């Protein structure tokens, strides 16, 4: 939903944001720009809030380089065969787009070891519970103290 989970802007505005350094990370994926607004993340941190972002492997590594204290979680399918089956059943991509998406996913799965955690998404509820456990552990053991 625009303004809640995502913020949609025009291509021109996005390119302006890139030039001005207003994005923590950004990438062109399948012909579309995606990025994380730096100001929103910094504002949340300033108020002592944690931030969760959904990015690809390149985005996660960019954020880890800029913010080494960040925690990265790779959400993995049970297998590449299962991933292909899920994508085909969604029927949201044309044949060539689907092939490219599967090839990209295989490349990203090969880089999963670069992440702090890997969560296998066999069942959504189980994956969510595992991510919540990671957040709880990281919050208790690794959260920097905020000065009041």
Describe the overall structure.
- The protein is built from six helices and four strands.
- The protein is α+β, with helices and mostly antiparallel strands and 148 residues long.
- The protein folds into two domains: 49 residues, 2-Layer Sandwich (Guanylate Kinase phosphate binding domain), CATH 3.30.63; 78 residues, P-loop containing nucleotide triphosphate hydrolases (Rossmann fold), CATH 3.40.50.300.
- A two-stranded antiparallel sheet has the order 1-2. A two-stranded parallel sheet has the order 3-4.
- Strand 1 and strand 2 form a beta hairpin.
- Helix 4 runs antiparallel to helix 5.
- Average residue pLDDT: 88
Q: What would CATH call the class of the largest domain?
A: Alpha Beta
Give me the CATH fold name of the largest domain: Rossmann fold
Unreliable segments (pLDDT under 50, ≥5 consecutive)?
none
The tally of beta strands, per DSSP, is 4
Spatial shape: globular
Main β-sheet, spatial strand arrangement: 1-2
- How helix-rich are the residues, as a percent range? 40-55%
CATH superfamily name of the largest domain?
P-loop containing nucleotide triphosphate hydrolases
Distance from first to last alpha carbon: 33 Å
**SS element count, helices:** 6
What structural class is derived from the secondary structure elements?
alpha+beta
The appropriate CATH architecture of the largest domain is: 3-Layer(aba) Sandwich
Order of helices and strands: HEEHHEHHEH
Number of domains: 2
Q: Name the beta content range.
A: 5-15%
């Amino acid at each position: 939903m625009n303004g809640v989970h995502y913020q949609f802007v025009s291509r021109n505005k996005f390119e302006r944001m890139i030039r001005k350094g207003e994005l923590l990370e950004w990438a062109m994926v399948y012909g579309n720009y995606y990025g994380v607004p730096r100001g929103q993340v910094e504002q949340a941190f300033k108020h002592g809030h944690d931030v969760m972002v959904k990015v690809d492997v390149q985005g996660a590594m960019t954020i880890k380089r800029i913010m080494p204290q960040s925690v990265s979680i790779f959400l993995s399918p049970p297998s590449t065969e299962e991933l292909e089956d899920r994508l085909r059943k969604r029927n949201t991509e044309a044949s060539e787009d689907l092939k490219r998406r599967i090839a990209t996913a295989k490349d990203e799965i090969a880089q999963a070891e670069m992440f702090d955690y890997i969560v296998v998404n066999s069942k959504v509820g189980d994956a969510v519970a595992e991510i919540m456990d990671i957040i709880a552990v990281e919050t208790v053991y690794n959260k920097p103290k905020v000065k009041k």
